[in-house]
Design brief:
The structure is a single chain. By secondary structure, the chain is α+β, with helices and mostly antiparallel strands. It has one domain: 2-Layer Sandwich (GMP Synthetase, Chain A, domain 3), CATH 3.30.300. It is built from 3 helices and 5 strands. Strands 1-2-3 form a 3-stranded mixed beta sheet, with helices on one face. The longest helix is centred in the N-terminal third of the chain and has 28 residues. The protein is globular. The protein starts with 6 loop residues before the first helix and ends with a helix.
């Protein structure tokens, strides 16, 4: 035990640091996904798995992401964060399409409910 620091304090710091790292990776990955035209990421989760971070993303868009796009995002987020990142994408092609835009179904429904 470190002088003046108990085990629960160390665990609390570790958990807080782990949570903060996960939130950073989730935000970075969401930005990467949004950087692809008409792709949306309603849900992203990052959890540590040994020395790697496993990032799971629900991605909605007019097409399925290609493996090379996933690999590129893993590399970019890994490089910027200094962490090894494995990205797993659950792709859904569920959009409301208007004459001018794509809108994820969840967002469209929320907009309709908020209007009423």
């Amino acid at each position: 035990m470190l002088q003046g620091v108990c085990c629960s304090d160390i665990m609390r710091c570790f958990i807080t640091e782990e949570k903060a790292t996960g939130e950073v990776l989730e935000r970075q990955m969401r930005n990467e996904i949004r950087g692809i035209k008409n792709m949306f990421a309603p849900n992203i989760d990052a959890v540590p798995k040994g020395d790697t971070w496993s990032v799971r993303a629900e991605v909605v868009g007019p097409r399925v992401l290609r493996p090379d796009e996933v690999r590129l995002m893993e590399n970019r987020v890994g490089k910027s964060s200094g962490k090894k990142v494995d990205l797993h994408v659950w792709s859904r092609v569920e959009l409301v399409v208007t004459g001018t835009d794509y809108i994820p179904v969840e967002n469209f429904i929320k907009e309709q409910v908020d209007k009423n």
